Structure formats: C-alpha cells, structure tokens
C-alpha cells in the first residue's frame, strides 16, 4: 500500500523546471530509494515532498490525502519526518534541546519522556552528551542526533536526503545499520543517496532520476543485474 | 570627583537599562526574522503616546501606563507582521532588503501619523512621575529613573527566561538558527514571526511608556531611539541577547560619564563613536559570533 505518492510532479525555481513530471510511490513499511547523478532533481523532489517548494504541476499524496500545497509544518503534523542533507539540527542548542524541538508537536509530557528514553536506548552516546551543544558532536553522532530528533515526533514516514554525506565508510555502515533496524521495526523510509551501492544494499525499491525525469525503477537486484546502473551511477556513487 | 563619577555611573546604569531593553528587542526581531527594523523607535513612540493619552484622562503610574502601552503596541506589531511582513516572506525567510525598506516606510508613516493626530507639540506627563528619591550617603537616586531601570530589568529578564525555558522560546531560537530545520520539526514559521514581532514591539512600547514621565513625547522621538537600539546591537553583537544587555549598560554608563569630561551637548557623540570603534576593532560585536545563519 502506498504511504506516499508523487504524481507527475513538476517543480523548480523561478519558472525553470528542474523536475519535469516525476512520479514515485513509497510503499508502507518499505525502504524506497532515489538515485541519480548530480542535478537529476533528487533534492528538488524531496523539497516538493516536504513542502519547501510548491510544485507548479502534479500532486503529492500522503496516506491518500493531497498534501501538495500544505506548508511543511502541517506535513510534519501528519506524520512525515525529514532529515535534510546538512544542518538538520540546531548546533547552538544542546542535544536534549534538539530532541525537545523534535517533539515540538507532542503535547503529552509522559509520551515525550518515553520517546526520549527510547532514543537514548538506541543511541547511548546521546544520553551521555545530552547537556552539550550539538555543535560539539562528531559527524556520526550528529547523524544519530538527527535520527533521534526525527523519532521524537514518532513519524510514520522518514524522508532522508543523503544520510551518508560527509561520513567515513565505517560511519555510513553504522548509520545504515540504524536505518535498517528502523525498517525492521516497520518504519517507512524514503532515502535519496549519492552512495548508490549502499542504498541498493538496503532498499526494497529504487527510482533512478535523470535530468528531472524518471529513468529507471525496480528492485535493487533487477537494477543491478541489468547492468544499466553500473556505467551511469555506480562509479560516481562509490566515492 | 569620586562622587561625580559614581553619580554619573549610576545615572548611566539607569539609561543603560533602557538601551538594553531596546537593543534586546531589536535583536530579537533581527535574530528570528532577519528584519532590520528601522521602525523600532516608532514602536517606542506609540507606547509613549499611549501613556500620554492615558495621562490626559488621568490614568498614570508605572503599571497603569506600561501595561496598556504593551497591549496597544503588541496589537500594532501583530498587524504590521501580518499585513506588511508576511507578504515579504518566502520559504520561511523575510526578504532582507524589502523588509528593511518596508520598515523605513513604516517609520515615516508612523511618525507622520502621530504628527497628524497629536500635532507637533512636545507632550509631557510630569504629573505622573513617580516622586521621591532614595539617598545613599550623598548619592541621590530619583524614583522615576529607578522605575525605568527596574522596569527594563524586569522585562529583559522575563524575555530571557521566556526564550530559555519555554517551548515557544525554544521554537523562536530554532527559527533564528535555521528556519528550514525548524519547519521540519513542525514549527510554523509564519506564526513564530508573528509572535516575535508582536513581542519585540511590545518591549519597545513598554520602554516608551516608562520614559515618558522624565522626557518629552514628540512625533519624531522614535528616530533617536532607533539609532540607540542599533548602536547597542552593533556594539553587543548582532543576534546576541546577552550582548545587547551588556552593550546597553556599557553605552549608558559611557555616555553618562562622558559628561564629566566633554562639554554638555557633545555627549551624543559617545554612542556613534563607540559603535565605529567596535566596527573597526571587533566587527562581530562584544559577544557576537562570526557564524552566519545557514
């Protein structure tokens, strides 16, 4: 069943379309990946899905509801979580404050403290450093904070823009292990990645974009077996 | 001599509280909304004239004039934010140049509106002054100036506590730091902008009501206070809440002490001079950070 749907989304900045009618379906409880070379429109697609950018044409639906024109905070309210490519956190605020703002919409104090304990169980290092400003965390710890922050709102879908960016391969493995764990727990994930190899290793279904349009789509083994991706993306993705 | 210095320093602390309050509120609006609000002083004017208006019907005193002034100016701030600033907001950010030009126009409009309604006369409400003074040895502290200092400190402290310990304060700090990320946590940026501008304006309005008994209210009074607010913010550091408080008191004391050495009337040069000195020696301000917002 579709948790999120983008239907023929056309979007861009100042009249020039970067996305030209892109469609994708994110199935409930699955990991859906989006790959493509630089400038393919991956980040623009996520912006349209998150409401940072209003499509000039097409529609975005979440749980069957048309959210195409909803402001970002309303989408969060409906159960979407978002981790941006960089600076998805608040550097000058403490780890705990970052988690608190993640639960901005959660009014129940009891619920907030339960979720925080859950986040601290998942990422013990965050508990240790709860009173330190986020600016003092390492790159890997920041990713944990961002995942923890997004879990505080208990979303039904988490959208991630290049979770591997700027991390060593050991840390990328660590982040992806956590993502896999979330998926096993039933979470729906939509991940945009440059690191194609890593994404293919975890995703249930992958869309490849090129020049703002859908190019290929399929399960990772079908895409990999076709050999079509190798020349196009794998080289660039394994940096 | 020592008594002179002490007396002027104390006077300076009293004015400093006012500068701190103005700088703090200007900084709040700039920090959260990135609006360079040239009309900040006019919010003070509106607060001052609210006090004048109340005085003409016989209502006065610190609480009775400050609270209505806060209400009136908050309302004005909310209307301005909704009607004038909201249309300049794209993707959670107010267009910086348009925001500043808008506030310039607003400043002219408000001072001329006050001129049209109340006329060009200097208005005084001396009858509402808090009388009496506290004497510590030879040091005399006037009652009304203590009220200004106390009021400023209470309001500034309340703002700090609000920013530090409430959810709304946390959301305001989040928007200040990164509006996109704030939205990604469910914070409605237009709503935070509205609250921020209302709150920042309210503090300037309160300052207006506090100072009317010791000064004159006149239509163009806002400009001077806009300047002092900017000087305070630049010395303290753009976006730094503590910086504005520190700079406010430093400015007040420096200006006041300068009377001992400078001919009276020339002390207005102290603020701009300190500001230029800061810009040359420490451009980010005393407590400002070099970091720009993402």
Question: Can you give a write-up of this model?
Answer:
The complex is a heterodimer of chains A (239) and B (294). Chain A is of the alpha/beta class. Chain A folds into 2 domains: 161 residues, 3-Layer(aba) Sandwich (Rossmann fold); 68 residues, no CATH class. Chain A has 10 helices and 10 strands. A 6-stranded mixed beta sheet of chain A has the order 6-7-8-3-9-10, with helices on both faces. Chain B starts with a helix and ends in a 13-residue tail after the last helix. Chain B has one domain: ABC transporter involved in vitamin B12 uptake, BtuC (Orthogonal Bundle), CATH 1.10.3470. Chain B has 11 helices and 4 strands; from the N terminus they run αααββαββααααααα. The radius of gyration of chain B is 19 Å and the shape is globular. Helix content of chain B is 70%, strand content 4%. In chain B, α1 packs antiparallel against α10 and α2 packs across α8. At the A-B interface, α2, β6 and α3 of A face α6 and α7 of B.
Give me some keywords for this one:
A: 239 residues, alpha/beta, Rossmann fold, 6-stranded mixed beta sheet, 4-stranded antiparallel beta sheet, 10 strands, 39% helix, globular, B: 294 residues, mainly alpha, ABC transporter involved in vitamin B12 uptake, BtuC, two-stranded antiparallel sheet, 70% helix
What's the structural blueprint in terms of helices and strands?
The complex is a heterodimer of chains A (about 240) and B (about 290).
Chain A: E1 2-13, E2 16-27, E3 31-35, H1 42-50, E4 57-62, E5 65-66, H2 72-77, E6 80-83, H3 95-102, H4 109-122, H5 124-128, H6 139-151, E7 157-161, H7 169-184, E8 188-192, H8 196-202, E9 205-210, E10 213-218, H9 220-225, H10 228-237
Parallel strand pairs in A: 3-8, 3-9, 6-7, 7-8
Antiparallel strand pairs in A: 1-2, 1-4, 4-5, 9-10
Helix pairs in contact in A: 3-6
Chain B: H1 2-33, H2 40-56, H3 62-85, E1 89-90, E2 93-94, H4 96-118, E3 133-136, E4 139-142, H5 143-165, H6 167-177, H7 179-183, H8 189-211, H9 221-236, H10 241-261, H11 270-281
Antiparallel strand pairs in B: 1-2, 3-4
